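Hello again, I could really use a second opinion on something today. I've dropped the whole record in just underneath, so have a look.
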Amino acid sequence: MPAPRTAAAVAEPVVVPAGTTAADAVAAAGMPMTGPRAVVVVRDPDGRLRDLSWAPEAEVAVEPVSVDSPDGLNVLRHSTAHVLAQAMQDLHPQAKLGIGPPVENGFYYDFDVPPLHPEDLDKLEARMREIIKSGQRFRRRQFADVAQARAELAGEPYKLDLIDSSGGFEASEVMELGGGGELTVYDNLDPATGEVRWSDLCRGPHLPSTRLIDPRGVKLMRTAAAYWRGSEANPQLQRVYGTAWPTKDGLGSYLRMLEEAARRDHRRLGAELDLFSFPEEIGSGLAVFHPKGGVIRRELEDYSRRRHEDSGYEFVNTPHITKAQLFKTSGHLDWYADGMYPPMQMEGAEYYLKPMNCPFHTLIYRARGRSYRELPLRLFEFGGVYRYEKSGVVHGVTRLRGFTQDDAHIYCTPEQLQDELASLLQFVLDLLRDYGLTEFEAELATRPERFVGKPEEWDVAEAALEQALRRAGLAYRIGEGEGTFYAPKIDVHCRDAIGRSWQLSTMQVDFQTPVRFGLEYQAADGSRQQPYMIHRALFGSIERFFGILTEHYAGAFPAWLAPVQVVGIPIRDDHAGYLSAFVDRLRAERIRAEVDTSGERMQKKIRTAQQQKVPFMAIAGDADVAGGTVSFRYRDGSQRNGVPLDEAVAHVVEVVRSRTNAGPSADLTPEAG
C-alpha cells in the first residue's frame, strides 16, 4: 500500500547509485541499520517497498522505512511469519503451507497440520527463537517461469493453488505472489555457509536478516481453524496467530492493552450492565436490547436525528423485505447474493430480507419528477438490514446478522459533488466528536479489478473523494483496488481510549445506481440530467457503534448517555422518602434517576451503583434531611457533601445537558469553592 498522504514528516530521501544496493546507500547516509529504529526496507518512486538488497539499474531516490513505522512493522511481522512457518516445518515436516500475511498488530500463518495444542505453541516459540538468533538472511529470488515454480513447490499443494489461480483472496488476506506479475520466492540462508535452510513463495519484501527480529518482542497468541480461501468447500487448516514488535517493551505494552481490552469487552459489559443479550432461541448474530441498552440506543439515535435535521436531511422509512426484482435492478443479486439471506416464496414471488437500504431510497427519489432546485436531496433512515454473516465472524454487537444502519443517500448535481463531499465529511467528523471520539484517519478505497461503470467515472469520483479528505486535513491512505464493485469510498477509522483503531463511517460516490434506476432531474436549462449519488453510513450500524462506545468508555458512559444518571442511596430506610422527592425533581428535568430501596446496607448499595457505573450517587442521612441537602459520591470515588437541593439539581442538569464526554475515571465534581 502506498505511503500515507498526510503532512506528517517522512524520512529524508536517499539516493541509490546504479549498481549499488539500497542497504549501501542507507548505511552511507548514516541511518541506523540495527536496533528499534533500524531501516528495514525502502520505498521506490512508484511507492513500492523494496528489500535493502535491491540494486536499481539506474540512479534513484528512495525513502528509507524504519521498523517502527506502520510499513516497517508489517515487514517485521511478515518476516516473523516466515520464521514461524520454518519452525512449524522443522517440528512437523509433514505440515503444508497456506498463507502467512501481516495483520493489524501481528501476523498469522495457515498450515495443513493435525490440530495444535497450547504446548505446541511453546515448542514453536522456542524453535523460532533459535532461528532468529542464528541470524539467517532473507534472499529474494524470481522464478524464470511458472513451470519452474511448480517444479520447486511440487510438495506444497496450497502454494501450487496460488500459482494456478493467481488471485481469489480478499484484499485483507494478502496474496503471497510477487508484485507486478512476478513469481518470487524468499530463501532463508545460513549466515555462515549461504546454504538454503527454508523457502517460501512470497512477494515480500522482508528484513535483511532474522537478527533484526527481537525474540523478546515476539509471542504466539492462539490457534484457530480456518478454511483454505475462506470457503467451507475447501480443506480446514490450522491458523496460528502471533504478534511481533521491535522491542520487549513494545510487546509488553501490547499485552497490557489486550488485558485492558478484555476488561472492556462489550460482550461481558453488556451482560454485567444488563444492556443486551443473544438468546439462543433467536439465533446467532441477532441481539435483543434490554431497557438500559434501549435508553443508550435512543440517546444515540435522538441526538443524531437532531443533528441531521439541522443539516438539511429528510427522514424516510422503508420496509425490511422486498421482491427480488429490486435487487436485480440494483445489481446486488449479481454481486452480493452470498451475503444475503435465502429468498422467501410468497404469493408466487421471491422476497428477500434487505442487506442494503440504498435501492429503497433510490425508489423514493424516483417516485416523482425532480428539479435541480431540490438538489442536493439528502435522505436519511435508521434502517434495519440483514446479512448472512458466517458464524465464525459474528462477534457480539460489533458484527451481527441483523443490524440498523444510520443510512443516508444524497442526490446532487455534478457541480455540487465536491462541496457536498467536503461538508459531509466534516459533518461526519463533528458528529463522531460529539460522542467522544477524537482521533481519526481515513482510507480511500479505489477501483477494484471487477467493477461496473466507466473508468473515467471512477476517476472523477476518486478525485472528488480525495479532495474532500484534503480539505478536511484528515490523514489518509490509499487502498488500491479495495473499493466496492460499484463505487470508490472513504472509510473513516477512529482510535478508542486504549489506542485501538475501529473502522466507522463510510462515504461512497456512486455513478452506477442512478443509471440502473433511470434517475433524472430537470436542469436549469430544461434538459434532463442524471444526478450523482453519495452513500453514507456514519456509525456503520447503531449496534456496532454501541459496542465500540461501550469499550471506549469501559461501560462508564458519560452522564448524558448513561442509562441511569442518578441513584439515590438512603443511609437508613426512613431517608428514602426524602430522596424520592429529590429524584422527582430530577425526573421533572428529564434526568434518569431512581432511589435504591432494596434491603441492602448502604455500603452495598454504593458498591452496586459503582458496579453499574452510575455517574451520580446522591446520599442522604439525618444531617441532609435536616439541612435540605444531599451528598454526592462520584464514579471516581470523590465526594461532595452537603449540597443544597436546588444547587444539586442544577449541578446534575448542567453536567447532563452539557453533553460532556469526560472519560470513565473523570472527576465530575465542580471546582472546589
Q: What stands out?
A: DSSP finds 19 helices and 32 strands in the chain. The longest helix spans residues 70-91.
